[in-house]
Amino acid sequence: MKLALIAAALPLFKVVSAFPSGGWKSGNNFDTLFFDATYDLIATPDQVVTNTSMPAPGEPGAKGRFRYGINVASQTICYHIELWGVTGDYQSPARTATHIHEAMKGKSGPPRIAFPNPVGDERYRKSRGCLTGPFKTGVLANGTDTGDGFILNKIVANPSIFFTDSHTKKYVPGVVRGQLSKGRGC
Fold this sequence. Notes:
Pfam family, one: CHRD
Distance between the termini: 43 Å
Helix content: under 10%
Number of helices: 2
CATH topology: Immunoglobulin-like
Signal peptide: 1-18
Strand content: 25-35%
Largest sheet: 6 strands, antiparallel
Domain CHRD: 37-182
Radius of gyration: 18 Å
Shape: globular
Protein name: CHRD domain-containing protein
Keywords: Signal
Number of domains: 1
CATH architecture: Sandwich
């Protein structure tokens, strides 16, 4: 009798999240049926540079894990961002302080996508969801938003010219940074 009640209750425990159906699986893996490419990278303070491409180490001891899944056809990027050891408030001229920028390793470049800032405390912060273009960053270059006209296929075609980071008031150039690399195709 108890086993029948448990079996009948199991469908009630379906995982519900901000991700589209078929998007993010529980655990560390993306659902390979939804994304054209996935990226899973560790961001560290030693990779941060200034806008003149000079080293500007981020917050000592901080670390970030940035996971992205991209569906090119729908112009959707799903994200699961985690930060550890990040202190203080966020700060950026963009809409948020957590981004994907376009620039080679060791260089600075404009933000192309602005993500909701991870929330939590200085031990652990998290942000998770999906964004669908058109993308807006809130940063203007020559009168145009740096996200205007940006398409996700640019990341899939050449991920190594993109990096991800987060910024705080104390570490304005970046608290942590990580360069994207070849994504896992799906």
